[in-house]
Amino acid sequence: MERKWSLGDDRGAASVFAVAVAGVWFGLAAVGVRFGEEVVVRHRLAAAADLGALAAAAHLVDGVAVGCAKAGVVVGRMGGRLVRCDVAGWEVVVEVEGGPSLFGAPSARARAGPTEG
User: How far apart are CA 5 and CA 12, in angstroms?
Assistant: First the structure.
């Protein structure tokens, strides 16, 4: 008796392929979500640096140490860590760093002071 061609040997192959494709999509989605979280953290650090620099500039009248201390308080409350606070005249440059992450430690820098001109 001659055997007819059938799909008996290939049964379930489409299911295995579909599970593999779903796994790849899930992995890409997980990496995308993680990357999105990193972008949000970077933006929050930028905001912390901006507000820290403004706080330091606003308190320079009380002294450089007081101004930089205020910057440290503001940055700390926003979840960052003050790495550097440089003062030159009435201009303040603040550098902020976040915690370690999958893509490295995010950082931000901001300047506050009088406008030029």
Answer: 17
DSSP string, 30-90: HHHHHHHHHHHHHHHHHHHHHHHHHHHHHTGGG-HHHHHHHHHHHHHHTT-EEEEEEEETT
Handedness of CA 45, 51, 57, 63 (dihedral sign): negative
The Cβ-side half-sphere exposure at 12, using a 13 Å CA radius, reads 2
Number of structural domains (the chain) is: 1
**Range of 81's domain?**
9-112
- The answer to whether residue 2 sits within a structural domain is no
pTM (whole model) above 0.90: no
Tens of pLDDT along 89-109? Answer: 899 999 999 888 877 889 999
Does 47 fall in a domain? Answer: yes
